[in-house]
Amino acid sequence: MVKLDHLALPVSDWKASRDWYVGNLGFHIEFEAPEGGSNGLGVAALQDDGGLTVFLDQTHAPIQSGQASYALRVEDVDAAFARLDAAGVRFISGPAKQFWGYGAVLGDPDGHVLHLWDEASMKAQG
Q1: In sequence order, what are the beta bridge partners of 11?
Q2: How far apart are CA 52 and CA 47, in angstroms?
Q3: Is the pLDDT score of 126 beyond 60?
Q4: DSSP collapsed to 3 states, the chain
Q5: Domain 69-125 annotated CATH 3.10.180.10
Q6: Could you tell me the residue ranges of all domains in the chain?
Q7: Which of 9, 27, 57, 105 is geometrically suited to a Cys-Cys bond with 46, CB 3.0 to 4.6 A?
Q8: Rounded CA separation 70/86 (Å)
Q9: Model confidence over 71-82: pLDDT tens digits?
Q10: Of 94, 103, 104, 105, whose CA–CA distance to 122 is shortest?
Q11: Which CATH class is domain 6-58?
Q12: Given this model, what pLDDT does residue 64 score?
């Protein structure tokens, strides 16, 4: 069995990214290391509801956003879009049929691409 356990995202400001993922997407703080991470600049370990840990690792290097994208399953794509849009989160595209099915696409503070989807909409509208 293979199961993705954690991944690391390079970020320009680990605290700002932590606050964005916790406040907007409901991730939980697993731990923080203000002088940790691969560059010693700080890292936050966040966990989603399924147990995946995402390390937000601050770097001095320019962030290469858009090289990878991440899919996040939510309860209801349309409701998540409405809530996040009202909070001022920037979307690349609102809920619509995408090449991969039905969902919405947004960028995090460093431009990492996040695809929101839910099972019901994927089946009904995908």
Answers
A1: 58
A2: 5
A3: no
A4: CCCCCEEEEEECCHHHHHHHHHHHHCCEEEEEECCCCCCCCCEEEEECCCCCEEEEEECCCCCCCCCCEEEEECCCHHHHHHHHHHCCCCEEEEEEEECCEEEEEEECCCCCEEEEECHHHHHHHC
A5: yes
A6: 6-58, 69-125
A7: 27
A8: 22
A9: 999 999 999 999
A10: 103
A11: alpha beta
A12: 81
Q: How many CB atoms lie within 10 A of CB 111?
A: 14
Q: What distance in Å separates the CA atoms of residue 56 and residue 20, rounded to the nearest whole number?
A: 11
14-68 pLDDT per residue, tens: 999 999 999 999 999 999 999 998 888 999 999 999 999 999 999 988 888 777 8
Sign of CA dihedral 18, 112, 95, 85: positive
> What token pair was written down for 8?
């690391």
pTM of this prediction?
0.88
